[in-house]
Specification:
Layout lengths: L3 H12 L4 H8 L3 H21 L11 H11 L6 H10 L6 H8 L10 H5 L5 E10 L5 E8 L5 E6 L4 H15 L5 E4 L6 E3 L9 E2 L1 H10 L2 E4 L8
Parallel strand pairs: 1-4, 4-7
Antiparallel strand pairs: 1-2, 2-3, 5-6
Helix pairs in contact: 2-3, 5-6
């Protein structure tokens, strides 16, 4: 029976690359004894690693919630900064990069108007509202994205009425430090009062939006190929 000290030395020498024959000669023990000990040690280590439960990551408790939020928002996409704010309110203490790495495979490419892919710097800003929370205390996120750089501005509101749209647009322009030539909207009811009232693609727009467009000399359009108004 070999001592604990000999067992440790066998293990150390083996990890250093020494053969069983050389270990047996150096420690004055049989090769059978050394080989048997190493095999039993490896078997015990394998059992220990297999039985060890994987450590839960910081994001794991929130993944179900994130998946539900992403699917509920389809075909729209919720910015990672919005989801980060929500899960931090629920106790998340991990990093922003951990969240974005989890979201990346889920982000589907949205097929949009060809104009999106041809916009030059300062040409277009896309604006939309995303529902964050419904119920007694609703929460909406106004999201503005520059067509060229994809830089994003987000501001939260309790509703998406005309005042919220106007404030969101002006706040985004101030944040980006300039005015694009065009605003691109989704087909929001608050923005379009009546569709095709003047002909196909010629809608009646919200008067407050028209005043805002005139103030900043913006063209406005919707993603359903509606014609521009100036």
């Amino acid at each position: 029976m070999i001592t604990l000290e000999i067992r440790v030395e066998i293990s150390v020498l083996h990890r250093q690359g020494m053969s069983i024959r050389a270990i047996a000669r150096r420690l004055s023990c049989s090769r059978v004894t050394g080989r048997r000990y190493l095999r039993s040690t490896e078997a015990a280590a394998n059992m220990r690693y297999k039985s060890r439960a994987p450590r839960p990551g910081k994001l794991d408790p929130f993944k179900v919630y994130i998946l539900e939020r992403v699917e509920a928002a389809r075909p729209d996409w919720i910015p990672a900064c919005v989801l980060l704010r929500e899960i931090r309110e629920r106790g998340y203490t991990g990093s922003y990069s951990l969240l974005t790495a989890f979201l990346h495979p889920m982000k589907k490419t949205v097929i949009e108007d060809v104009v999106r892919f041809e916009t030059e710097p300062g040409e277009q800003m896309q604006v939309d509202f995303t529902i964050i929370r419904q119920g007694k205390n609703p929460l909406m996120a106004f999201v503005a994205t520059l067509g060229w750089s994809r830089s994003t501005f987000v501001r939260f509101y309790t509703c998406q009425n005309s005042a919220a749209w106007g404030d969101g647009i002006e706040s985004a322009l101030q944040y980006f430090g300039g005015t694009p030539r065009q605003l691109l909207f989704d087909n929001a009811k608050t923005i379009i009062i009546e569709r095709d009232v003047y002909g196909p693609g010629k809608h009646r727009w919200n008067p407050q939006l028209i005043k805002l467009a005139e103030k900043y000399m913006l063209s406005v359009r919707v993603t359903d190929h509606a014609k521009l108004i100036h």
